[in-house]
Amino acid sequence: MKLAVISDIHGNIEALNEVLGDVDRRNVDQIVSLGDNIGYGPEPEAVIETLCDRGIPSILGNHELAVKEPAYLEWFNPLARKSHIKTRECLSPQALDYCRGLPPTRIVQGCLCVHGCPPDSTITYIFELSRAQLARIFDRMDERICFVGHTHRLEIIAYDGGEAKWRDPVDTAVQLDPDCQHIINAGSVGQPRDGDNRAKYVIWDTETYTLTVRRVPYDIKVTADRIIELGWPEFYARRLW
Ligand SMILES: [Fe+2]
């Protein structure tokens, strides 16, 4: 069983379409999105439509949380807030309802899916946590595997009951230790922040216990130009490069 995990699409339909094309060529059985489908990028409505049309389940990201609970917007920096307001203004009532209706977690193929941090935080960044805090989180986690997004950086953290250890994802398949629990950050489809401007996602093979990291090129200029054309904060166009 192959599960494709996509996250942080951020209104980037060019990146999403290329990623879904890549998924379709790789015999994947199921796809899940870890939230932040909207925000920063110029095509949030098209992204939500695509997820709904393809029946791809999602969870709540912090950008959807800001739609559901506008008070949370106070935590955004001024530029992100401006971008969020533009995003919200262009979404249809149906798309806004979709954002408000997303659950904070899902279990997919036995894996916990949460935007920020297990067990159920949409807003906590994994990098804020010490090794000791991570160990406590693993101890309380029932699942062997948890997928997160939020930081826009690929990451694999393994826990053997003693210490949480980081390992670098590589381009080819990574064999994970079935005796360990893992938190896997799927990176970002629509706004990578790891110095590689290609869209990222991962494929989890439940039978071979391997994780494949996919790095997919897309037409960045189309998305960047559209952000500028709309008069949305230019910073988020430049950041794509
Ligand atoms: Fe995000």
What structural class do you assign from the helix and strand content? alpha/beta
Give the count of helical stretches. 8
Give the helices and strands as they follow along the chain.
EHEHHHHEEHEEEEEEEHH
Query: In CATH terms, what is the architecture?
Result: 4-Layer Sandwich
Q: Strand count, sense and closure of the main sheet?
A: 6 strands, mixed
Taking all residues together, what is the mean pLDDT? 96
- CATH third-level topology: Purple Acid Phosphatase, chain A, domain 2
Radius of gyration: 17 Å
CATH class: Alpha Beta
Low-confidence stretches: none
Oligomeric description of these chains: single chain
**What gap, in angstroms, lies between the N and C termini?**
34 Å
Which cofactors or ions or other ligands sit in this model?
Answer: fe (ii) ion
Give the neighbour order of strands across the main sheet.
Answer: 3-4-5-9-6-7
The helix content, as a percent range, equals: 25-40%
Query: CATH homologous superfamily?
Result: Metallo-dependent phosphatases
Sheet-strand content, in percent, reads 15-25%
- The tally of strands reads 11
* Total separate domains: 1
